[in-house]
Amino acid sequence: MNLPKIKFAYFWNHLIVLCREPNAEQHLKEISNAYEVLSDDEKRSLNDKFGEAGLKGAGMGMGDFSNPFDLFESLFEGMGGMGGMGSMGSRASRSRAVDGQDEYYSLVINFKEAVFGVEKEIEITRLETCGTCNGSGAKPSTCSTCGGQGQVVSSARTPLGVFQQVMTCSSCGGTGKVSTSCNTCSGDGRVRRTKRISLKIPAGVDTESRLRVRGEGNAGRRGGSPGDLFVVIEVIPDPVLKRDGTNILYTCKVSYIDAILGTTIKVPTVDGMVDLKIPAGTQLNTTLVMAKKGVPVLNKSNMRGDQLVRVQVEIPKRLSSEERKLIEELADLSKGKTASRR
Ligand SMILES: [Zn+2]
Ligand SMILES: [Zn+2]
């Protein structure tokens, strides 16, 4: 039997007293039985409070707790079952470490910030380990039943006299301490706190990109690891530049004359206004490539996409009389060419 040593000592005291009495053998049996029942009760009560680990802990198996924190936790949980923290969920679910949940933060950035990356300071609110109770959720105090001794003396009047028996205090399980919920965190072991975090948003992110900040999510419980923080990016679109992966799409308009003769126009890009040469004889809906004026490839910022410029050729709906005259001359010239070829 894994009984606490103190029990045997008191048992022997009783035994010595009893042996001096007549019918000692009979009484010895009664005491012995009573003791068995008592210790079974104690075992049961310990079992209820601490489970298998609690029995070992109360006896001699303190070393079975690989982590001293485990012991601390299970002891306080056991006490919680008695009173203060009794309403906090089932024993089974409370005995294991639980990892903290991930936290999500939606970050809105502008078009250029997404293209070139940006440093942002954000303020997040998440559960942190309570500093008052170090995450245990418990506020330990001296057991009022046993005055911190961990033992209580019970007296029983019998025909043989008054028996006194020292028992492990059932209020505190023999530790001399009881616990109530921590005032700061109301027993959860975690508190909601606001924290400012600096983020380096890499170049090339886009709407729905997610940045993971390891360990900055919600704190775990009972030694569980914290969750991660996921920053979900939302990019405000640019009114003229459209994003297509790492490429940027832009549409320009040139007159039919410029399309025929060729010209140079100013085109907005993420690097500012850039000259773009429209070659002579540019056809309708031609796409011109402005190499490396696009978006840097995420995590490969030396690689960049292109800006693709679609050329819309504008044909006038009205002509001045002078324009009309010139166009007609052009038409005659064109027909003459055609005729002379025949
Ligand atoms: Zn606390
Ligand atoms: Zn006590």
TrEMBL record:
InterPro entries cross-referenced by the UniProt entry: DnaJ, DnaJ_C, DnaJ_domain, HSP40/DnaJ_pept-bd, HSP_DnaJ_Cys-rich_dom, HSP_DnaJ_Cys-rich_dom_sf, J_dom_sf
Species name: Citrus x changshan-huyou
The J domain, residue ranges: 1-51
Gene Ontology MF, one: ATP binding
KW Plastid (keyword) present: no
Gene3D superfamilies: DnaJ domain (1.10.287.110), Heat shock protein DnaJ, cysteine-rich domain (2.10.230.10), Urease metallochaperone UreE, N-terminal domain (2.60.260.20)
Protein name, as recorded: Uncharacterized protein
Any matching Pfam family: DnaJ_CXXCXGXG
Sorted UniProt keywords: Chaperone, Metal-binding, Repeat, Zinc, Zinc-finger
CR-type zinc finger segments: 117-194
GO cellular component: chloroplast thylakoid membrane
Top-level lineage group: Eukaryota
One of the GO biological process terms: response to heat
